[in-house]
Amino acid sequence: MSTKILKLAVLGTIGLTSFAQAETVPITGQVESRCVIVTDTAGVYGNPNAYTLTTDPSQGGVESVVRFDVTLADSYYARITSPTEFSSSPNLPDVVTWTGNTEVDAVSDASTMGTYESNKIQYGNTDQYDLTATGSTWFKTSSEAVLGGSRPYPGGNYTALVLAECIAK
Amino acid sequence: MLKKLLWVLVACCWASYSYSDGINPYYGYTGNAAVNGLSWNMRDVLPSPPGLDINGVIYNYTIRKQTEDSVTVNVQNENISGTGYIFRERDEWKPGSLDGTQINKVVPVVPSNRSLWGDGSIEVQGNGSVEDARVLYTYRVDPCYDPQYSPQCPGYKVIIPDIEIVDYEIYDATADAYTQNACVEGDTSSQCVAQKDDDDEGESEEEKEEREAEEEKDRKERLEEALAEADNSAMFANALAQSQILAAIDAARNINSYYAKTISGGVYNETISLPRTELPDNKQGLRNGLAQQLLHQQMVQSQYEK
């Protein structure tokens, strides 16, 4: 059986070689990101009074922590924006005043990353860090939302999102 | 062709089986070495196996400093086999780095045996300090570091205990001097005859008489001892016979038969009946009581009569 197949294959080859042929050869490649963002800790809002939601640990909240892993030095910015609106919530009777802040929580190399915090640029609710070294950096973000007029938040689930971006220089 | 393929397949399977049959190394990590302070003894940190190679250090801490200060932190282990450190990781907190920043660091090291790792410490240079320090060591353990750990380890040797060879002196009873001297008078065996002849040769008449006198004396003493032993035996036998007679007499007074008596069962009714329900006073008792009373009064009265 295998002998027959071999003969057929040889004949086929001979037949094919008698024609001109054109081929397109693909070249594939895969580029892995040199900057990876990982959620380390999801934040939780505490509710110290009727009209305030805050991630302050002293008031029952949990600050969110996000980690940036960079394998190519001096090539990326870390841009982190604290929430300015709820992504999901009950209907609110008034406007919400947002405050937030991001700071370096931990680094994997003190010598090269220790000054990230003091060198950061802030605009609005966004903090931008220049990732000049390879390694991991943990950023923690706090958020507070106060409902206008000291009116109580309606009961329900509230979700707000921290936006973390790794932007190539 | 198929047979060849099968042989190749069997060979591959055999190889993989042999590989998994051995004792494989395993990996782990220690607890926090800095749990009790900024210096530690590796003997208290590492587990006990001798074939342990440290292949990494994981640490984190929070720096405490003023923003404008420069602080250097060294996480280190002394080198036992030489001077300096077998591991030293340096963190330079430059001016501008903020107070309260943590550092999380994973430092792989060339695997080296535990015996080279000396005491560990976190050294702070400059105006600052560290807190919440945590230092872990990752390691790899080769159970066959000591080949005698298991027969499956390469280089395992079956230990044959050294048995001490004792040079025993073999006792030849026939060569014993006492055996040779055991020939008695009148023994006509060839050995004794030959021995007697040997003894007689070269012995003077005076020595011969002296020896015979000595033998005669010994013979009498032996006879005396034998008679004494016989007498003692007879006395012992008499005492034994007497004790047996006494035991036989005691057996005749055996009181076990008393213990074996039984009382027949049933109901034992009261045999005394009282036809009258009233018990009259005993008149004799009354008389006796009055007599006692009279006697008592007489005795009392006699005191005053004196």
How would you describe this protein?
The complex is a heterodimer of chains A (169) and B (306). Chain A has two helices and twelve strands. With 169 residues, chain A is mainly β. Chain A has a single domain, classed as Immunoglobulin-like (Sandwich), CATH 2.60.40. In chain A, strand 2 (46-49) and strand 3 form a beta hairpin. In chain A, strands 1, 2, 3, 4, 7 and 10 form a six-stranded antiparallel β-sheet that branches. A four-stranded antiparallel β-sheet of chain A has the order 8-9-5-12, with no helix packed on it. A two-stranded antiparallel sheet of chain A has the order 6-11. Chain A starts with a helix and ends with a strand. Chain A is extended, with a radius of gyration of 28 Å. Chain A has helices spanning 2-17, 110-113; strands at 35-41, 46-49, 52-54, 64-70, 76-81, 86-88, 96-107, 121-123, 126-131, 135-147, 159-160, 163-168. Chain B is α+β, with helices and mostly antiparallel strands. Chain B contains seven helices and eight strands; from the N terminus they run H-E-E-H-E-E-E-E-E-E-H-H-H-H-H. Chain B has helices at residues 2-21, 42-45, 177-180, 190-200, 205-252, 256-259, 283-305; strands at residues 26-29, 39-40, 52-65, 71-79, 85-93, 102-113, 117-126, 128-141. In chain B, the strands form two sheets. Chain B has a four-stranded antiparallel β-sheet, with no helix packed on it. In chain B, strands 2-7-4-5 form a four-stranded antiparallel β-sheet. In chain B, a hairpin with a 5-residue loop joins strand 4 (71-79) and strand 5. Chain B is flat and about 125 Å long. Chain B starts with a helix and ends with a helix. The model of chain B is unreliable at 5-21 (pLDDT under 50). Strand 7 (96-107) of chain A pairs parallel with strand 6 of chain B.
